[in-house]
Design brief:
Length: about 130
C-alpha cells in the first residue's frame, strides 16, 4: 500500500522540487518580507503578489504533537509522531518527527529538517530533534 501523495500543481511544484534536492522552500513576499506556508497566490500578510520561493533555514520548534499508535494503513508504521513545527522564519507546518522515541518529543523541543522518500518520485520534509 502506498502513502498518501501530495497533489501536484503550480503552487506546490516549487516546494516539492526543493524537497527533491534537500531544500525546504517557503514563499517570501517581496513587498513585506513575510514568509508563508502553505503556498498561496498572494501574501497572507499584505495581499501582495510579489512572491518568490526561498530556501528556509530548516530550524524550528515543536508547537504541538501527537503520537500515532495505530497506523491508518500498512504504509505507515506505528508508532510515529506527527507535529506542528514552528519554523524560524515564522510559518508553521505539519510534519513527522523521526529517528527518536516518541517519549523524547516535547512541546518546545528544537528540531531540524531532514528529508524522507515518500514514494519513488516524492521526497518530503521530516524533522529530527536537535539539541542547541
Amino acid at each position: 500500500m502506498n502513502k498518501i501523495q501530495p497533489a501536484p500543481g503550480n503552487l506546490a511544484d516549487a516546494f516539492i522540487a526543493g524537497c527533491r534536492v534537500g531544500e525546504l522552500r517557503l514563499q517570501c513576499c517581496g513587498n513585506c518580507g513575510s514568509y508563508q506556508f502553505y503556498p498561496r497566490i498572494m501574501c497572507a500578510e499584505c495581499h501582495g503578489r510579489d512572491l518568490s520561493w526561498t530556501a528556509a533555514s530548516g530550524r524550528g520548534s515543536v508547537s504541538s504533537f501527537t503520537v500515532v499508535r495505530r497506523a491508518i494503513s500498512a504504509a505507515y508504521e506505528a508508532p510515529y509522531v506527527v507535529a506542528l513545527i514552528a519554523l524560524e522564519e515564522g510559518p508553521t507546518l505539519m510534519s513527522h518527527i523521526v529517528d527518536c522515541a516518541p517519549e523524547d518529543v516535547a512541546v518546545g523541543a528544537q528540531v531540524r529538517v531532514n528529508f524522507a522518500a515518500w514514494s519513488d518520485s516524492v521526497t518530503l520534509p521530516v524533522f529530527t530533534l536537535h539539541n542547541n
